[in-house]
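User: Quick sanity check before I run a bigger batch. Here is a single chain. Can you write out its predicted 3D structure?
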Amino acid sequence: MSLNLKKGQKIDLTKTNPGLSQILAGLGWNPRVTDGKDFDLDASAFLVGENGKCASEEDFIFYKQSQHASGAVVHTGDNRTGDGAGDDEQILVNLAAVPANIQKIVFTVTIDEAEARGQNFGQVEDAYIRIVNSEGDVELNKFDLSEDASIETALIAAELYRHGTEWKFAAVGQGFAGGLAALCRHFGLDVE
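Assistant: Done. Predicted structure follows.
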């Protein structure tokens, strides 16, 4: 049975689901009616060490760099509209293959060209992140993102993190102004 999480809530993933090794992070949203400009959200993942930073650009997974060198994290593709039911973008994680130096996988969502289009998360509804056990396609938890980050253009949705030998999940919902560039700087990556 899936748990609906609240901001700040943390749950055990692998301890309560023995044998869990393959998960899917599904992110979904619907744009509210706007002035007709295209509305494109992008999911990505930052793989960070104990210092909370990426070791290199290879630890940033998104639609243009869809797979980590280890094969542990894979972005399945870019949805440019958010139309339709279900997940708009998905990131697959093989927990057993995540390199030992990676302490967290941070799932984020940004609005493409938000400043130029005058868009922010206040214009997004029905936003969520869910974690699914890929083996059997069973939803483990879901976090509704719609209530936070009304004026921001980037959002840290959730974190998957190590706790000893186990993996836990934290519902974060932290907004950022400055879009993807601000997130990259936050996680220690140079922005051109």
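DSSP finds two helices and twelve strands in the chain.

User: Great, the batch can go ahead then.
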